[in-house]
Amino acid sequence: MRVKTILVAASLLASATLAGCTTTGGSSSTLAAYSQVNDGGFIIPAIKANEIKPEFRRQIVAYPTDEKPGTIIIDTANKHLYYIMPDGKAMRYGIGVGRDGFRWTGNATIGRKAEWPAWVPPQRMLVRQPELKEFAGGMKPGLQNPLGARALYLYKDGKDSMFRLHGTPEWWTIGTNVSSGCIRLINQDIIDLYNRAEVGAKVIVK
């Protein structure tokens, strides 16, 4: 009887342990891709698994294209960014895109990359939102900085277009029309994209 009791207890313990590793479902669980990150002296909070819609979670998908691996294709209508991989695959990320009147399409290249960038609001934004004038000289990097943990600067014809692919502390805005034209990603996702994308890579915005 004692042996049977021990076996039952062991079985229950194993079940509890496996439940604790679940990456979807319960509100207390987190996807491995969106766990807490200690990066550059900042701690990016974990995001609960059920708080990101499945279609906006980072994932590898089939994506046949004639574009070479390393190219970034942005589907603004469906709020997806694709990083092209070999063999007809792509890493897909959920994104937030420009509001009405701020969306744009076209080709660009990654001109430079930055970790925990400072943010300087464009002059046109300062005119629209004068309350941001306190940041006219720049906002220091940090968890509340609108550019988040990383920024990829988009260049066109060798010049800064003023558009970025960047992280955001407002991860819940992914999947919406929210920005002034920049493409925003969850901080954990922009770190992943930053580590894959190279300066000079082609970016196609549709």
From TrEMBL:
GO terms for molecular function: glycosyltransferase activity; peptidoglycan L,D-transpeptidase activity. It comes from the Bacteria. Residues 70-206 form the L,D-TPase catalytic domain. The active site is at H166 (proton donor/acceptor), C182 (nucleophile). One of its GO terms (cellular component) is extracellular region. It holds the Pfam family YkuD. The keyword Lipid metabolism does not apply. SUPFAM superfamilies: L,D-transpeptidase catalytic domain-like. InterPro entries: LD-transpeptidase (IPR050979), LD_TPept_cat_dom (IPR005490), Transpep_catalytic_dom (IPR038063). One of its GO terms (biological process) is peptidoglycan-protein cross-linking. Keywords: Cell shape, Cell wall biogenesis/degradation, Glycosyltransferase, Hydrolase, Lipoprotein, Peptidoglycan synthesis, Signal, Transferase. Pathway: Cell wall biogenesis; peptidoglycan biosynthesis. Belongs to the YkuD family. This is Lipoprotein-anchoring transpeptidase ErfK/SrfK. It comes from Bartonella choladocola.
